[in-house]
Amino acid sequence: MWAISDMLAATSVLQQRATDIRSQKVNWQSYFQSQMISQEDHQFIVAFDVPDSSKREHLLHNDRMQCAQTFLNLLGHVSKDQTLQYILVLIDDMLQEDRTRVEIFHEYATKKKESVWGPFLNLLNRQDGFITNMTSRIIAKIACWSHTAMERSDLHFYLTWLKDQLKMQYDDLAANLAKYDAVRGPNGDQPTEIYTEVSFSVDEQHPPTEITNNEYIQSVARCLQMMLRIDEYRFAFVSVDGISTLLSVLSGRVNFQVQYQLVFCLWVLTFNPLLAEKMNKFNVIPILADILSDSVKEKVTRIILAVFRNLIEKPEDAQVAKEHCIAMVQCKVLKQLNILEQRKFDDEDVAGDIEFLTDRLQSSVQDLSSFDEYATEVKSGRLEWSPVHKSKFWRENAQRLNEKNYELLRILIHLLEQSKDPLVLSVASYDIGEYVRHYPRGKHVIEQLGGKQLVMQLLAHEDPNVRYEALLAVQKLMVHNWEYLGKQLEKEHSDNKGAPKGGVAVSGKA
């Protein structure tokens, strides 16, 4: 599903720095003479730090415990950044040569009754970006390649660090992109002073979405790609709000390589049936559908299609799979699949995923009821004036909003409170008004759920459409007897032969 080149590209910044650091040999003799390292550690590191891999292999075979002891002692006692960088590169190269060497550190920790993670996790607090990210890479390898899983508290600390780094690196990038846009000026002119102000260069041939700063966001994502292949680590990542962070970054302006890596993380998460069932509660389908429609890179397209396939295949609850299909239809994925069918892909899996998804989504469209469509739209949070927002729909389905402890009503009210989109606020206000209009106890339910106060607050909204729909909803909430009101309106209409001049105006999108 993924190529080796994808993984190499994912750590290119870190690897480039590592190549430079390897050439900067350390004078171990000076550390020994100044009594900063012991004679045993000096003897081992001098014998180990040689180009000949066979000599290193022989040394590790004969003295595994000294290897772990020396490296951990060096990490704990050396303070100079440049030397620490070199030590970490040595450790990483050692593990890369042979994955089973991660057990060296576990065996030593078990013998000494110490934590294998402490010395490494402490380094994540350093200020140097290379040190923290190379340490993170080593932690991921030990955690994923060992027979012993990472302990809960250490795992929680590490995954939280990765999540925070991902968000921080993205926020830095977003700030730089905003500065880039600002200095371009209103006409999109190329900046003149940006080269000295921000830490990336500008190429006239590349739009802002392709700009990356010289940070380690790809390395952080690569560690997550490794960790989330292990089921136990997946649930721990979810518990630190990891999915929301992935989707928050994906919703912004990141280049295709970061898009691929983060969608890869979502893909491996969806191999767990329980997580596949819960995934769209985080709005993953709308966000990935947007990326899919804009993507020009095959590897981004294929990994998104693979996520969509898992969201249909992996859930054990058929109703959830159906809801995912409907959500994809709602987000115009079927239309995008029709476009993709016309393209030729190098990866055969892509054609198979397109065929599978097209078949399942077309089947779901045939079975789609108006209430299914409405429920999916509400759950997506992307309300619009779609056909389900009609008086006929509300006459037939208003009472169904009471199902599952008023689930859809609660979402509508949450949107009124949290959304900044005038269209969403307008449609949500209208729907609440129609629910009250067509369900006898609707006014009481909305008041109990806190919806009435939120609608009334929107009467002062800056957008005139929001104010208008909020006013209509408030009017509906104030009416006590719809049957009586209807007769009064009919009477006034017949008396005046025109539009009613008094009473309460009632609107419906017919």
TrEMBL record:
Pfam families reported in the protein's UniProt record: V-ATPase_H_C, V-ATPase_H_N
Nuclease found in the keyword field: no
Gene3D superfamilies per record: Leucine-rich Repeat Variant, V-type ATPase, subunit H, C-terminal domain
InterPro entries (alphabetical): ARM-like, ARM-type_fold, Armadillo, ATPase_V1-cplx_hsu, ATPase_V1-cplx_hsu_C, ATPase_V1-cplx_hsu_C_sf
Highest taxon listed in the record's lineage: Eukaryota
ATPase V1 complex subunit H C-terminal domain mapped to chain residues: 368-482
One MF term in the entry's GO annotations: proton-transporting ATPase activity, rotational mechanism
UniProt family annotation: Belongs to the V-ATPase H subunit family.
Function recorded in the entry: Subunit of the V1 complex of vacuolar(H+)-ATPase (V-ATPase), a multisubunit enzyme composed of a peripheral complex (V1) that hydrolyzes ATP and a membrane integral complex (V0) that translocates protons. V-ATPase is responsible for acidifying and maintaining the pH of intracellular compartments and in some cell types, is targeted to the plasma membrane, where it is responsible for acidifying the extracellular environment. Subunit H is essential for V-ATPase activity, but not for the assembly of the complex.
Record-given protein name: ATPase V1 complex subunit H C-terminal domain-containing protein
Lineage: Eukaryota, Metazoa, Ecdysozoa, Arthropoda, Hexapoda
